[in-house]
Amino acid sequence: MKRLLLSIVTLIIVQFASAQANTTMIDDAPYNYEDVEVRPEFPGGMNQFMDFIGKNFKMPDYEGYGGTIKVAFIIEIDGSVTNVKVVKDLGDGTGAEAKRVVSISPRWSSGEFRGKKVRVLYELPIKIASQG
C-alpha cells in the first residue's frame, strides 16, 4: 500500500514538473515578425538596416548569376540578435558573409505581444546581383 501511494505521488510530481517545463519552452518560443503587436526595429529604421547591410557586406568571389540569400535570426527581448542561420545560400561564401554581417548588428528595439516583451523571429532576404 505504501509503495502504491509513493508511486502515485511520484507520478504526480513528475507530471507537474514536465508541465512546468513545457510551459517554459512555449513561453520562450519566438514569435513571427508579422504576428507581434509592436515589431522590433533596427536603430533608425529599416532604411538604416539596409544601409548597415550594404556597408558591411563584403562580396566574396561569387561566380553565380545572382539571386537572393535568406538569413533567419531571433531578436531577443533585450534587442540583441541571436541564432543567425542561413535559410537559402547562393554558395561561394555568400551565405557565410550574410550570417557574419547580421551577427554584428547593433541591438534592435524589442518586440511586444500583449504588452509583454517577446523574442521575435525575423527572416531577411538579401539580393545579390550578377557579377558578370
TrEMBL record:
InterPro entries (alphabetical): TonB_C
Signal peptide: 1-21
A Pfam family reported for this protein in Swiss-Prot or TrEMBL: TonB_C
Superkingdom classification of source: Bacteria
Record has Transmembrane helix as a keyword: no
Any one of the GO BP annotations: transmembrane transport
Residue span(s) of domain TonB C-terminal: 63-126
Keywords: Signal
Keyword NAD (UniProt): no
Listed name of the protein: TonB C-terminal domain-containing protein
